[in-house]
Design goal:
7-stranded mixed β-sheet; about 850 residues; Metallo-beta-lactamase, Chain A; 25 helices; about 20% strand; 5 domains; about 30% helix; alpha/beta; elongated; binds zinc ion; Rossmann fold; disordered N terminus
């Protein structure tokens, strides 16, 4: 049989089941390190072209730009799209309608799983307007070129993606689900170009795209946003290169154009359709107007696309610079050129003399500009002026890189002599080194990620920025990640909560603590007064008022005294009907409803529930002591284990002790067996019976039925009264345990002294408190000192009695013994007859000899304080 074990009695056996508050939902753990923002370039990392930047923070994914490399073909022209699960993208932001920033949008939207996710695509209105034409042209040029690769997407893909693209205006804040905000700012560069200030969970990231800061003829230069971003992801196309100033390059450009046409040559200007082309047209048209001798020389814009884009430009005058707007306000359309003609198809155009021809694409990899280059290259009177940025590997770059180049390769593979004059005047609408350094420093982000630049240009700019930062003693980190290299930026973030409503109407003084209800939504925090909750959130609040009635059998003052002992102090008052109230810890009210009824009232809450529980168990504990007093037959036995006490059990060790309340154990045994009484007898000579049977509990009911209830005539308590000994039994807990486990404890350290005639040798003549349990002919005796049970006639009966005794002890161990003993203190101080009774009862504890009343009280007070 496994040893039988009783659990320690519950500290609150009368614990009521209280209606508990519903469990609070646990705050969801943040999916990612809240202090880290990741930037991964899928394109334009240490290169120019196919821009695609992935920003990840706190489980949100934002992609800026989805370009292609205009000089490449097929899949290699795309960014590393396979590196991202596009269904996880929350938003795709397109800065402007250049192919290297927007050319991959249709592919992403139609050929990846982007549409399976929540992601939306945003661009400005003008960008969307140009995007449509530029993509149609892109597909047309690709299909006409000799490239044999598969088309990445079709025109229908472009149209399908177009309908799903959302538009946004400059300075318009868009709030997306999941706590993402973004705002577009002017970026210069081309019509519609924007930088995006993105905010995720309070973290601000500025993605610039391509920017120009120059005041030109039609665009608003890139803005410095008022808010300082934590991270800036900016272009570095020209590195630290300084470009010519505006005036110088315009006059050099116009001189070169004139020189070519005046010598009877054709001037070829390969241009990017949207962007520098418009600026060049504005410059040329203005110059031609001022120089009538040039009117005989036609200027052509050799592209159907150009005509379409010009229509877009005419629509978006309002988003251009003040000069254009003022011209427009004079009822003149600045894009209604007087000296420029559009050519629908260069192939069918009659080439019969000197002219200025703007033709796309700027890189001359295919299309009209390439056709004209191949046609005009062999003649030395013709001239080529390169005005845009030439990406690596493109025909434009090939020509500019190699001085003294004698021939070029035609699209059909033939060699074409290159005799035309070649000049470069950059109208590439990008910031140069000086402008960019100043721009980046004005933005003032602590982390700058350089993108969209060739490696050495990027390195130069990085060095320059780091040098400046060191010089100005500013802590700025410059990063230049390669494609697909994940850059983790660790930031120190501050959590800010905005106070609203009533809280905001009372501005706090310095260092004053403000408390309220903290609401979290999409990573933003709001602090408000709970009473404002409904107004600001539509949520209702309710209070649960708890009420518990308790029968009261002790005096109100005694209740108060006990509560003061436990809680350190209480507030007293009365309700409007005059009912006395004691308020505990400012949260639980005890009302004296009638003389014998107490009501506890409190507003449900974690702490108030606990306080109410404590107060309730305390009150019930007072009742316990009261009930024992009422009987006037106090049978709380105490055996303080001191050498001077004649009732000390021999060998008793008191390292820890439980109190067995005989007064409560007796009725329990009586109820069970019909007869149980306390007597003082000489030690038993029979061997004690140890409990062996685990099934005692199971037999309980049967036993009850079998046993005829018969109360003993004799009142065991009376005897004790006569003896005048009011004692309390203290049981060594370890021995109790040992007994319950089947070892009566006599084999412990002092085993010999306890064995057999326990105490007989040492304590001769001392009668031992014993409980006698009688059922029919059987009589079992329980030795209180040793807690052993014996029965001369039936071992099984002894076993049964012992089992029930253990249960009785477990169930009846009283509450708050400390408080019971402490009641003596108050009764000694007050003089009501009611309390006098209390005192009579409670003072009747046997104190260790030699301890004065005062010392005893002090000890008990000490207990109280625990
Ligand atoms: Zn661009």
């Amino acid at each position: 049989m496994p040893p039988r074990r009783f659990n320690q009695p519950s500290p609150l056996p009368h614990h009521r089941k209280r209606p508990h508050t519903p469990p609070q939902p646990e705050a969801a753990p943040l999916p990612y390190d809240s202090l880290t923002v990741s930037v991964t370039m899928l394109g334009a990392g240490q290169e120019v072209g196919r821009s695609c930047c992935v920003i990840q923070h706190r489980g949100r994914t934002i992609v800026c730009d989805a370009g292609v490399d205009p000089g490449a073909h097929g899949l290699p022209s795309l960014p590393f799209v396979d590196e991202l699960d596009w269904s996880t993208v929350d938003v795709l932001l397109i800065t402007h309608a250049h192919l290297d920033h927007a050319g991959g949008v249709a592919y992403i939207m139609e050929k990846t799983n982007f549409r399976d996710g929540p992601g939306k695509v945003y661009m400005t209105h003008a960008t969307k307007g140009i995007y449509r034409y530029i993509m149609q042209d892109f597909i047309r040029v690709r299909s006409r070129s000799n490239a044999t690769d598969d088309a990445l997407f079709s025109e229908s893909d472009v149209l399908s993606s177009l309908s799903a693209i959302q538009t946004v205006d400059y300075h318009q804040s868009i709030h997306l689900p999941g706590g993402i905000h973004f705002t577009p700012y002017h970026a210069g560069h081309i019509l519609g170009a924007s930088m995006f200030m993105i905010e995720i969970a309070g973290l601000k990231i500025l993605y610039t795209g391509d920017v120009s800061r120059e005041i030109d003829r039609h665009l608003v230069p890139a803005e410095i946003p008022l808010e300082r971003p934590d991270v800036m992801i900016g272009e570095s196309t020209f590195g630290t290169m300084a470009l010519e100033n505006r005036q110088d390059k315009e006059s050099r450009f116009l001189n070169e154009v004139q020189k070519i046409v005046r010598r009877g040559g054709r001037c070829l200007l390969p241009v990017f359709v949207a962007g520098s082309a418009v600026e060049l047209l504005l410059i040329l048209d203005e110059y031609w107007s001022k120089n009538p001798d040039l009117h005989s020389i036609p200027i052509y814009y050799g592209s159907h696309l150009a005509r379409q884009c010009m229509e877009v430009y005419k629509q978006y005058i309002h988003s251009m610079n003040p000069s254009i707007r003022s011209t427009f306000s004079k009822h003149e359309n600045p894009f209604q050129f007087k000296h420029i003609s559009h050519l629908r198809d260069v192939a069918r155009w009659k080439d019969d003399g000197p002219c200025v021809m703007l033709a796309s694409p700027g890189l001359m990899h295919a299309g009209p500009s390439r056709q004209l280059l191949e046609k005009w290259a062999p003649e030395s009177k013709n001239g080529l002026i390169l005005t845009g940025y030439s990406t690596t590997g493109s025909m434009a770059r090939h020509i500019t890189d190699k001085t003294g180049l004698e021939d070029i390769e035609g699209l059909n593979g033939q060699k074409i002599p290159l005799r035309m004059s070649i000049e470069t005047v950059s109208f590439a609408q990008h910031v140069d080194g000086t402008q960019n350094t100043e721009f980046i420093e004005q933005i003032g982000a602590a982390h700058v990620v350089l993108v969209h630049g060739e490696r050495h240009q990027m390195a130069n700019l990085r060095n320059q920025l780091e040098k400046n930062a060191k010089h100005n003693e500013r802590d700025v980190k410059i990063h230049s990640p390669r494609n697909t290299e994940k850059l983790d930026i660790v930031l120190r973030t501050e959590h800010m909560a905005q106070a609203i409503g009533r809280l905001a109407s009372r501005p706090p003084s310095t260092s004053q603590l403000v408390s309220g209800l903290l609401l979290s939504k999409d990573f933003s925090y709001t602090l408000l007064d709970p009473s404002d909750l409904k107004d600001f959130t539509g949520l209702e609040t309710s209070e649960i008022k708890q009420r518990q009635n308790v029968r009261l059998n002790v005096g109100w003052d005694l209740v108060k005294w006990h509560l003061e002992g436990m809680f350190g102090g209480v507030e007293e008052g009365a309700d409007k009907n005059g009912t006395p109230i004691i308020r505990v810890m400012s949260s639980v009210d005890l009302k004296l409803v009638t003389e014998r009824e107490l009501t506890l009232e409190w507003i449900a809450g974690t702490s108030s529930d606990m306080i109410a529980d404590a107060a309730l168990s305390l009150i019930l504990g007072i009742e316990e002591s009261r009930s024992s007093v009422k009987r006037k037959t106090l049978t709380l036995f105490a055996f303080p284990f001191t050498d001077h006490n004649p009732t000390v059990p021999p060998g008793g060790e008191t390292k820890s002790s439980n109190t067995v309340d005989i007064d409560r154990v007796l009725p329990f045994l009586t109820a069970h067996f019909g007869s149980a009484e306390l007597v003082y007898i000489s030690p038993p000579s029979t061997s004690p019976i140890k409990p062996e049977d685990e099934d005692d509990n199971g037999d309980l009911n049967e036993d009850k039925a079998e046993i005829e209830a018969e109360r003993s005539e004799e009142d065991p308590v009376a005897k004790i009264d006569e003896s005048g000994d009011d004692v309390k039994v203290e049981v060594d807990e370890s021995r109790m345990e040992a007994i319950l486990e089947g070892d009566d404890g006599r084999n412990s350290t002092n085993g010999e002294e306890q064995s057999g005639k326990v105490g007989g040798d040492q304590e001769e003549g001392v009668k031992r408190p014993t409980i006698l349990v009688k059922v029919d002919a059987h009589e079992a005796s329980i030795d209180i000192w040793t807690m052993t049970t014996t029965c001369a006639s039936s071992t099984s009966f002894a076993t049964r009695v012992h089992g029930v005794l253990a249960m009785a002890i477990a169930t009846t161990t009283p509450l708050n013994v400390a408080f019971e003993s402490a009641t003596g203190l108050v009764s000694g101080q007050s003089g009501t007859p009611e309390e006098g009774k209390e005192r009579n009862g409670l003072e009747s504890f046997v104190r260790p000899e030699g301890s004065s009343t005062n010392e005893g009280l002090a000890d008990e007070k000490g207990d109280l304080d625990m």
